[in-house]
Each structure stands twice: as C-alpha cells, then as structure tokens.
Specification:
Oligomer: single chain
Strand content: 5-15%
Order of helices and strands: HEHEH
Number of strands: 2
Distance between the termini: 33 Å
Shape: flat
CATH superfamily: Response regulator
Strand order of the largest sheet: 1-2
Number of helices: 3
CATH architecture: 3-Layer(aba) Sandwich
Radius of gyration: 14 Å
Number of domains: 1
CATH topology: Rossmann fold
Largest sheet: 2 strands, parallel
Length: 88
C-alpha cells in the first residue's frame, strides 16, 4: 500500500456510538485526517448526531464539518443536505 493511501483503520468504525465530548473529538480527528489527505480533502462531511443543542451545533461546525443533522433524520433530509453540499 502506498504511504498516503486511505486505510480503513485510520477512520472510526461505522455506527460507533460515542458520547458528547468523545463524538466531538472523534469528528474533529476524522475531519482533520480527511482534510490532510489529498484523496479525501474535498469530500464534504456531514455530522449526523443525537446532540441537537445550539452549542453542540456551533461547536461541531467550528470543527470543520460542512453540515449538521440531528437524529432521527428523515432520509429525504439527508439526501437534500448531500445535494446542497455537492452543489456548492
């Protein structure tokens, strides 16, 4: 594998349940890793979380995520968010 290749172990597992500060730290780490990797740096990141407080949203967007949705999110809302980010 090339030195800069994408390896699944560098990113959190799908569906991993974590608590507030851990999820923010995990989002920050994952977003930073993606932004530093040439093949991933332009992929928009949408945070999907159960944390829906105003402070949670502001902190998360400050971490560099491109979008923020709270659970439960209707599939149509997620699709709309993806389309909006890709249109930018």
């Amino acid at each position: 594998m090339r030195k800069n290749s994408v390896r699944p172990q560098n990113f959190p597992p799908k569906g991993r349940a974590v608590r507030s500060i851990d999820s923010l730290r995990l989002a920050a780490q994952t977003t930073n890793r993606m932004r530093q990797h040439q093949a991933l740096q332009d992929i928009p990141v949408i945070m999907l979380t159960s944390m829906g407080g105003r402070d949670d949203i502001v902190r998360s967007l400050g971490l560099g995520v491109d979008g923020y949705l709270t659970k439960p999110a209707r599939p149509s809302v997620l699709v709309d968010a993806v389309h909006a980010l890709l249109a930018q």
